[in-house]
Design a protein that fits this description.
Layout: H1 2-11, H2 21-37, H3 43-60
Helix pairs in contact: 2-3
Length: about 80
């Protein structure tokens, strides 16, 4: 997955859509609904869903799913993250 999405993430090219953020919101929502119904813990898919919902919630749902990285604060160019 990272071999495919990584170059787009590094380039910041989220307009060349392979799979949209909104699709991941839908699919991860289904995964979490099934897990809940089966009483199966799925903490990683729940956390991933929140990241995709966060990006979609600020109007980026139509972008490539690699835009999920925008949910997380980015260090400034040339700076360092504290």
């Amino acid at each position: 997955m990272l071999n495919d999405r990584g170059p787009r993430m590094a380039a910041g090219d989220f307009g060349s859509v392979t799979s949209a953020v909104d699709i991941f919101v839908k699919d991860l929502g289904i995964v979490n609904d099934v897990a809940r119904a089966m009483r199966f813990p799925a903490p990683l898919s729940a956390a991933a869903l929140q990241s995709f919902v966060g990006v979609a919630g600020v109007g980026m749902g139509k972008l490539d799913d690699s835009a999920v990285m925008l949910y997380y604060p980015q260090p400034e160019q040339g700076g360092r993250q504290s």
